[in-house]
Amino acid sequence: MNSLRLLAESASTFATEWNWLFWMLVAVCGAVATGIAVLLIYWTIRYHRRRADELPEQIEGNIKIEAAWTVIPLILFLGMFGWGAKLYFEIERPPANARTVYVVAKQWMWKAQYATGQREINTLHVPVGEPVQLLMISQDVIHSFFVPAFRIKQDVLPRRYTAIWFQATKPGMYHLFCAEYCGTKHSGMIGWVYAMQPHEFQLWLEQGGAEGSLASTGEKIFHQFGCANCHHFDTQGRCPMLRDLYGRPVQLMNGQTILADETYIHEKILHPRAQLIQGFDPIMPSFDGQLTEEQLVALIAYIKALGPPPGTGQPSAPGTAPQIPEYEKGITGPRSTSISGSKPGAR
Ligand code: HEC
Ligand SMILES: [Cu+2]
Known about the structure:
By secondary structure, the chain is an alpha+beta fold. Helices cover 32% and strands 19% of the residues. The chain has seven helices and twelve strands. Helix 1 runs antiparallel to helix 2, helix 4 crosses helix 7 and helix 6 crosses helix 7. Bound molecules: heme C and copper (II) ion (CU). The site of copper (II) ion has 7 residues, from loops.
């Protein structure tokens, strides 16, 4: 672990390409800088003034040289840009089958919530060879989620979900940092990502000890906070039916259309007046200050898991547990509310 290395360990599918890109940049910039330095010194000596009255020969221009020093850097720089952009788009676009883990950042810790109900602090367990997407939000100031070994870094903001994804390639323990100065104990906002073999990860999920799925926790909150008094799942009365809301365009009062993503639902619950919906009276109360970010994550997971309205697809009776994706099924056994996750000594 203490071996001297130039770059952080490479443990994700991005890492190899990232390393190549990095070394290409170092090589090109190094070669250009060296070339300029060498020519500078050589020409300084070669063309220094030898007599007090010596005048340089006047040169009117040289199309070939000018074209060369325009076209060659253009190709080099566009190449760098193109390669960087390609990798950036890969990092920005999670594959559709990625497993979602919700992360809440707060001064000064990371809290993770799994769809299956596991919760942990300052640790993150992930399977090797499977894409994992993190949907992150901050409870207070701006933080930044940084795992050098995976070559991923993403700002974590209040009132807005940001996403990052990765696919671990090597089992191991990898450092997790906050990379945005966020207060006095910023340097202590660190943790570990455990990349595990898929079967070990499955075991961890089963032993993790959780109280039902995240969506079922959300369902309880939905009833506890009286959302269910207004939002019914069979009829759409004075309040919109929340079935099939996630990912659908919503017509706003101001004429805009907005996509119902996590941030929209989050905003709607805390600041319902900010984006009023066409065709409804603005009677929804604000839940600002009443729900924690973790509860909001659970509510959103619940709303996302609601199926389409009865009659339009596979109907799920109102009030029944929402659908859980196939890969998240099969978690049985006794569950407790305790927050799981071991904290390694290094802190
Ligand atoms: C007093 C009734 C009432 C309560 C309680 C209520 N809502 Fe609403 N909700 C509404 C109404 C009315 C609208 C649509 C009007 C608007 O734009 O605010 C709405 C809109 C929404 C939307 C946007 C729906 C869409 O189609 O875009 C979401 C999401 C939502 N509510 C979630 C919740 C959650 C979660 C809770 C509980 C924490 C809750 N609501 C509690 C009445 C209510
Ligand atoms: Cu931080």
